[in-house]
């Protein structure tokens, strides 16, 4: 049995979104977007076909869009499509005047009922990195909402972290990395997120078809950039723990981060693989009545 860390992401339970929304958090999200784009080599999975007589007919939603960088990239690829950003916090993205004109932003939580005017509206729904806010108890509601947002035949792309295969990479296998080892266990959080690796079958239970998962690991030149970005996330999580009264847990995370940064300078990093799941809502001819 793996040793239990001093503190882990189970401390987020019951608190909703446990990262910040200040300018440093926005900068972290922007870095995260560019790292993901570099690692994946795309923003829209190549298997997703949105071609129509005119892409002006295409409606795309990005759920929990953060700073809007994914939307901005996709707006360049589909300049005549309608892109809607849906989130509970609109303060981290650029003002509308600085964004492509085909992007609209609105308040909506993935746990809220889908407004009637949004039911069956979208050809493509994208969601990324909701691993921290979804649990075994509320995942079905969120996945059902994603399904309801889509038109028949529409696509879902879900990008997230594979915490199960999180590990510490080192230039010297003999190097001791006690702090990074603690962070690895904190990310795994005693299996808190293990269900995510069953997403294709879970989405199938909701009604999605053709669900496939692709795994993506760190190339050597991205190990350190991703590792540093993970430390930023952990430190931010510590700040939020303080705000909800979990000061002891926060101090443990701060210690993990500080000591992990020193280990990183010696040639080690926390590696959290990524996955992308693509699924489809059946076309009208295949929908169960």
UniProtKB/TrEMBL annotation:
Instruction: Note one Pfam family from the annotation.
Output: Methyltransf_25
The alphabetized UniProt keywords are: Methyltransferase, Transferase
- Give every Methyltransferase domain span: 60-154
GO MF annotations, alphabetized: methyltransferase activity
UniProt-listed SUPFAM superfamilies:
S-adenosyl-L-methionine-dependent methyltransferases
According to its UniProt entry, the protein's GO biological process terms are: methylation
Q: What InterPro entries is this protein classified in?
A: Methyltransf_25, SAM-dependent_MTases_sf
Would you tell me the protein name for this molecule?
S-adenosyl-L-methionine-dependent methyltransferase
Q: Which organism is it from?
A: Aspergillus taichungensis
